[in-house]
Amino acid sequence: MQAMDEHAKPCGWTLVSLRPKGQHAALRAAVAHSGAQIVALSPWRLQRRPDAAGARALCTALQASAVIFTSPGAVAAAASCGDGFLNAPERPWLAVGEGTLRALRAHGIEHAIAPSRMDSEGLLALPVLSDVQGMTIGLVTAPGGRGLIAADLQARGARLLRADVYRRVPVQLPARTLARLSRSPRPWVLAVSSGEALERVWAQLSPAWQARWQADMAVVVASERLAVQARALGLAPVRVAAGPTPSQMATAALALHADVKQAR
Questions:
Q1: pLDDT tens profile 4-49
Q2: Nearest Cα to Cα of residue 35 among 10, 63, 15, 14
């Protein structure tokens, strides 16, 4: 389903994406008919980890009572590790989001499920995770990713079997991209679906650019938790999207853009 009417008139605004390098296409497509320009400020690129230690950790994680995949990239990296992925026992395999669920089913994992609220909080509220005391849970992810999931499950007594099947390689923000942003049409709207991505990009901004974002950047976030984080940086206004999918983020961003434009 498209995020907005495909006949919507261009309205001249800018959507800033913090997705990993090379993964902005879905958000770009979701706002293609809105008149928005996309400025990509990637804090990292994803790199698979095909080493033996990672493969062993994956095989162990796939034998857990339930297995959580945190992104489509985690599914792709796990699938590339061999037969252990496809031949794992049919136990609850959980996807954080819609894209991750589609990736699992594309590999034949038809029993995979995802929450209706497709983020960490939604996943942790799934009935299958309501009582995890003494339960082994595999977490197929990347270092530093989805810290809330690991912390919450361990606090509730689960034994976590973590497999970091890819890693995030930091990317320096190009000066030319910030220069492009400075020339891009306002309002500016920042799309935030990862707290760590926001932290890394914010840390690379000069004090002058941080002040500029505080003055000029509206923010759409994927959860209330991320809204708190954005406001703590002095960013406003902040709007919480219905969920973290590109369509949901684009719909909220377009509505926020309209409100900001009218207010000005």
A1: 443 344 448 999 999 999 889 989 999 988 889 999 999 998 887 7
A2: 10
User: pTM (2 decimals)?
Assistant: 0.77
Amino acid at the residue 203:
A
**Concatenated DSSP letters of 4-43:** S-TTPPP--EEEEE-PPTT--HHHHHHTTTTTEEEEE--S
Residues near 235 by beta carbon (within 8 Å), at least 6 away in sequence: 190, 213, 214, 217, 219
Question: Buried b vs exposed e over 22-40: b needs ≥16 C-beta within 10 Å?
Answer: ebbeebbebbebbebbbbb
Structure tokens at 15: 């959507």
The residue type at 55: A
For 206-223, what is each residue's pLDDT tens digit? 999 999 999 999 999 988
Q: What length is written for the chain?
A: 264
**Residue 100 CB: number of other CB atoms within 10 A?**
25
User: Using CA atoms, how far apart are residues 261 and 150, in angstroms rounded to an integer?
Assistant: 40
Secondary structure of residue 185 in the 3-state scheme? coil
**Residue 247 CB neighbour total at 10 angstroms:** 20
Q: Which two tokens stand for residue 91?
A: 């136990």
What Å distances lie between residue 58 and 32, 85, 156, 163, CA to CA?
38, 8, 23, 5
One-letter amino acid for residue 79 of the chain = A
